[in-house]
């Protein structure tokens, strides 16, 4: 039985990697894939290895996580090729017969390993993307990111502010414009179906329901997800109505990171409905929300003017955000824990 080898950072895995490994497996009986990571990289190696295990459940594809802090380019070390030969030999169960790559380093590495080299899609004609391009602008290369890992690259934008400033209508408008998902305010959905008035015990299920909505909707979002409020809003209202605190809520309200926030000002008419009762406190609630944003260390854009002006300004801001690099904070162990990615 012949043995093939693929190695790479998979930083992150993309559909070009899937093509490489799929083609490699067609040309050998058993395939070892080395997932190589360095501690300084922004997407943890452990997470990338988990992704690869989910992407390739084939028992004949043997995935190995390599954590050796090796040099990345020949000019970095005089014994570069031997260092990598030692790493590969120590992480593979048997001699390598075939090396499969999409890179120019494949030929010299195959000579060091004493095996045959097969080059697959060097010019990226089959899958025109690279991991570095995805890190630099994930939304530009969205179609080449595997569905499994897209939630980590979704740009999450929170619409925040006090009552009756147009958060819901703007979130819905933005989702239509950018052809993606938005999350309605979970508290409204929850309270409209509840028998009896709201009480303090409702705040934890509201907070958990809202976060679960974010996690689920990110899975099918088209690169962007708009949130009509978030847990910081829930925290503000809990303090306003009950002068109370829920540790689970506080930790996430202050700890969760987002790509951007649109803070809607109170310069539009207040519209009464059955779930709004703070029309006389617009100024003080605006102050509360601004304080909360500062406490959570949230940067935001202040959105003012009539509804048409707000929509125009918001579209401009989100359009600029679309070309931004990936958000490295999302990949941290802390953020994954807070969002229950773990």
At the fourth CATH level, what is the homologous superfamily of the largest domain? P-loop containing nucleotide triphosphate hydrolases
Q: Mean of residue pLDDT? A: 93
Arrangement of strands in the largest sheet: 3-2-1-4-5
Topology-level CATH name of the largest domain: Rossmann fold
- Helix count from the secondary structure assignment: 13
Helical fraction: 40-55%
Please state the structural category: alpha/beta
Q: What is the domain tally?
A: 2
CATH architecture of the largest domain: 3-Layer(aba) Sandwich
Question: Which spans of ≥5 residues are poorly predicted at pLDDT below 50?
Answer: none
Q: Beta fraction of the residues?
A: 5-15%
What is the C-level CATH assignment of the largest domain?
A: Alpha Beta
